[in-house]
Design goal:
There is one protein chain. With 327 residues, the protein is α/β, with parallel strands linked by helices. The chain is built from 11 helices and 14 strands. The radius of gyration is 19 Å and the shape is globular. The chain starts with 10 loop residues before the first strand and ends in a 5-residue tail after the last strand.
Length: 327
């Protein structure tokens, strides 16, 4: 007895990008009135000037849906062609139904009464890269034809607003990408992994249910280990760092992004620094920054971008993806 093995296209590509953020802008001066901190201290330690905070009752799905809709419109892919939705989040308000299902329902995805496959994943700040890897592999394996991948968070809901070491970082937002088949690979292999010995370095755990991190341990890992894993992702795509034109790293802290770019020799390329105005949005940070800069015309079409995320779990993941082609 021999089973049939599914076969898909040779590669996949990002066809469109989208993003969404809450309306409320919280600047550093507002935080000065809430805790022992200052605008100068926050800028020096994090580079963050403003961040977006969800309104009361505004949840992950309320950000994921418009981000996905924008990506779908940007891609010109028909809603009925989407047969997979993968959402990366660690702050979903509902355990079931999942956020991917809410996105699929709101956008009317699927055809003939059959909705797409719907998956939520939780690898925190590396979540979008994990989700993009799953979508790429699913399409190339023949299990899906077109996918929407979303990173969305409402970290404000799990923030201790009396703790200046974390409250000055966290923010809310969503970013999304539409992935479709390509005759040649335009999304490289995902390189992912974890560090079980660092699982407690970044966590949202009982009894507090609040975001907490060992900032020094995370910084040490980011400065010493992140560059080698980022290089692995570039090598897996068959490229060198000389080929990379855009660095879209997790927007954890400007004081991490800048040294990472320097370690990789990418300081003369386009280094996304959306963290300064959007804060740390965990799984949303890479697609949020990528989409905002793409739609603002700050990123060229059809060039290699290194996407790399790391954080809670402790997890990391990265790949090289070509930026969308011009319509």
């Amino acid at each position: 007895m021999k089973l049939t093995v599914a076969h898909g296209p040779a590669g996949t590509e990002i066809a469109g990008l989208g993003h969404a953020q809450p309306r409320r802008v919280m600047d550093n001066h507002e935080l000065e009135g809430m805790m022992d901190t200052s605008d100068a201290w926050i800028r020096q330690r994090t580079g963050i000037v403003t961040r977006r905070i969800a309104a009361e009752g505004e949840t992950v799905k309320d950000l994921a849906i418009p981000a996905a809709r924008m990506a779908l419109e940007d891609s010109a892919v028909a809603a009925e062609d989407i047969d997979l939705v993968v959402v990366a989040t660690t702050t979903a308000a509902e355990r079931s139904p999942n956020t991917a299902g809410r996105v699929a329902e709101a956008l009317g995805l699927g055809r003939n009464g059959r909705g797409p496959g719907i998956i939520d994943i939780n690898t925190a700040c590396s979540g979008f890269e994990y989700a993009l890897g799953i979508a790429d592999q699913s399409i190339r394996a023949g299990s899906a034809s077109h996918a929407i991948v979303v990173g969305a968070e409402t970290l404000s809901a799990v923030t201790d607003w009396t703790d200046r070491t974390t409250a000055v970082l966290t923010a809310d937002g969503a970013g999304a990408a539409v992935v479709r088949p390509s005759q040649t690979p335009r999304i490289g292999p995902v390189v992912w992994g974890s560090r079980g010995d660092m699982a407690n370095a970044v966590r949202i755990s009982p009894p507090s249910g609040r975001f907490w991190q060992n900032g020094r341990e995370v910084l040490r890992w980011a400065l010493t280990k992140a560059p080698e894993h980022a290089r692995e992702a570039v090598a897996a795509a068959g490229l060198t760092l000389d080929d990379i034109q855009v660095l879209a790293a997790h927007q954890a802290n400007l004081r991490i992004i800048e040294p990472l770019a320097e370690a990789l020799g990418l300081t003369d390329r386009i280094v996304i620094t959306d963290v300064t105005e959007s804060g740390n949005t965990s799984a949303a940070s890479v697609p949020l920054g990528l989409s905002k800069w793409w739609h603002a015309g700050r990123i060229p079409a059809d060039v290699p971008a290194l996407l790399f995320g790391f954080g809670g779990g402790f997890t990391f993941a990265g790949m090289v993806a070509m930026t969308p082609r011009k319509a």
